[in-house]
Amino acid sequence: MQWTDRIRQVKILLVVAAVVIAVLSLVVSHLLTRDLSDEERSKMEVWSEAMRALNQADENTDLALVLKVIDQNHTIPVVVMGADGQAQFFRNVNVDGDNYEDSLRNAQQLGQQWLNNKQHIRIQLSDSTAGDYIDVCYDDSVMLRRLQTYPFVQLGVVMIFVVVAIFALLTSKRAEQNKVWVGLSKETAHQLGTPISSLMAWTEILKESYPDDDLIPEMDKDVKRLQLIADRFSKIGSLPEPVPASLNDVMNHVIDYMDRRTSKKVNIVKNFTEDDIIVSMNASLFEWVIENLCKNAVDAMSGEPGTITLSMERTATKAIIEVSDTGKGIRKKDISNVFRPGFTTKKRGWGLGLSLAKRIVEEYHKGHIFVKSSEPGRGTTFRIELPLG
Hints:
- The chain has helices at about 1-55, 65-70, 100-115, 140-210, 215-235, 245-260, 285-300, 330-335, 355-365, and strands spanning about 80, 85-90, 120-125, 135-140, 245, 265-270, 280, 305-315, 320-325, 370-375, 380-385.
- The chain is an alpha+beta fold.
- Strand 10 and strand 11 form a beta hairpin.
């Protein structure tokens, strides 16, 4: 539970950092683009004054200076429109045309568009004639447009970084946790081996000494059960070879085991198909998965009367197993975490059962396990899908 909370906190911090970086980037870029836009506006005002001087030139006008100012504009697209709405001149505008007249007509369309967008400076050519003017229509330069799109590119890069960082964090920690759990499982199996062997020997001695005792066969069953559990733990981390097995037999075996060891308040109901379903599996490990789901269902009832329903059906491509209970259910915010290693809602528990169950189903049997439905106070249904063949 603590590890899950820590991962969640790290992801939240990464997302917050990304948002802060993105906001700062957008603010800085906005300020830069605003300043550059103002600067381009000032340049166009100077350029417009040069156009006025050119149109009103006389023998005292310094044409060299005027032409130099006009010629220095190499970046800002501009179209000069007359009072009659016709384009008179254009610069830094990419227009197609077979000749200058065709290009001028195409530039006129851009000039009219900028004029409608209020991107123009009106120059009055004559103080006496109200209609004697030109409109210097202009657009943002290539540099300004690039600067306007830059923060969005940067935002995309930051988001990619956050996703990669979260993925790397989860992957590395998951791999580390897997190594720890595999080592723990194998060490547990190794440590159980010696006392189990001793118990098996003592059981045989008791059988010879008290052949008529009815409790000794039950003890023998429990010892063999311990041996089976140790065998399951020893297989965690290795890839067991699946073999065709009867899913009906596996499910019935689990029900028989759980029925003898579960309170009479809990009613176990099975809803199986009449036909036998054959699935490639490791029967010992898959039994443990169903047992774990059933034990969780029993815990969810908290000692109250309830029902566990085990259903099974077959489609054209897969076998479907569902384990339903009438327990306390799972909160919606916890459903996405139930298979996370270390997550548990129990006061006593490691939070490894469902994580190992998921690994056994999906990695060893190429199936899928998920919470089909859950409602607090009504119960939970887990669903397992296994491929046929």
